[in-house]
Amino acid sequence: MHLIRNSLDYAAWDKRRALAKALKPIYQAINA
């Protein structure tokens, strides 16, 4: 969860939603 949060810190506010949506399956795959 912290990795996602740290990644979002580098994204512009208008890009955060799209970035979070893109990162979610990546982190789920790592955690699986």
Quick overview:
It is built from two helices and no strands. It has helices at 2-9, 13-31.
Q: Stretches where pLDDT falls below 50 for ≥5 residues?
A: none
**Shape call:** flat
Number of beta-strand segments? 0
Q: Tell me the Rg in angstroms.
A: 9 Å
Order of SSEs: HH
The tally of domains stands at 1
Strand content: under 5%
- pLDDT averaged over residues: 75
User: Structural class of the helix and strand makeup?
Assistant: mainly alpha
Roughly what percent helix?
Answer: over 70%
Helix segment tally:
2
Biggest sheet overview: none
Intertermini distance: 14 Å
Protein name: ISPsy18, transposase
List the helices and strands and how they pair.
Elements: H1 2-9, H2 13-31
Notable traits:
2 helices; ISPsy18, transposase; 32 residues; mainly alpha
Structure description:
- With 32 residues, the chain is an all-alpha fold.
- It has one domain (2-31).
- 84% of the residues lie in helices and 0% in strands.
- The protein is built from two helices and no strands.
- The chain has helices at 2-9, 13-31.
- The longest helix is centred in the C-terminal third of the chain and has 19 residues, at 13-31.
- 0% of the residues are buried.
